[in-house]
Design the sequence.
């Protein structure tokens, strides 16, 4: 019941309008902007949310598995225990987020900004962080088997394998 109330904030109509917005290059439709909202536990698996706005949003335990979130802005969001397994996170902004105990296995996060993010105890196995900004990331206790860090900025990062 609680999940239904939270999901009412992103309706099928909003998702459709967002898809139209991305496909038209912003000329029609409307971008999803849930900045500052509480979407804890939301199921957005497989959704097309490229360039959506989630600044400062509470998304704990949300499911974004296999979603297209390329270029989305999650800066300052709470993403603890979020499922990003297999999602496209390329060029997304995760600057300063809390993403503890998250699942990023098999995600594509090329050129994404994770600077200052807290990824403690997250699953980063086989995630592709090529050319991503991981400056000052806290990845202590993370699973990192098969992680791709080619060209990534890792200055002052903790818990990541050395490149």
Sequence:
């Amino acid at each position: 019941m609680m999940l239904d109330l939270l999901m009412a904030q992103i309706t099928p109509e909003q998702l459709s309008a967002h898809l139209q917005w991305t496909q038209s290059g912003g000329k029609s439709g409307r971008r999803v902007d849930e900045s500052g909202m509480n979407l804890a536990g939301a199921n957005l698996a497989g959704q097309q949310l490229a360039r959506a706005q989630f600044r400062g949003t509470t998304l704990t335990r949300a499911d974004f598995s296999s979603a297209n979130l390329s270029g989305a802005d999650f800066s300052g969001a709470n993403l603890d225990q979020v499922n990003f397994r297999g999602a496209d996170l390329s060029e997304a902004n995760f600057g300063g987020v809390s993403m503890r105990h998250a699942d990023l296995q098999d995600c594509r996060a090329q050129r994404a900004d994770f600077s200052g993010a807290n990824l403690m105890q997250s699953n980063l196995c086989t995630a592709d962080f090529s050319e991503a900004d991981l400056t000052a990331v806290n990845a202590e206790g993370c699973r990192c088997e098969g992680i791709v860090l080619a060209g990534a900025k890792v200055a002052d990062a903790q818990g990541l394998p050395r490149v």
Observations:
- The domain at 32-163 is CATH 2.160.20.80 (Pectate Lyase C-like).
- Helices lie at 2-7, 12-23.
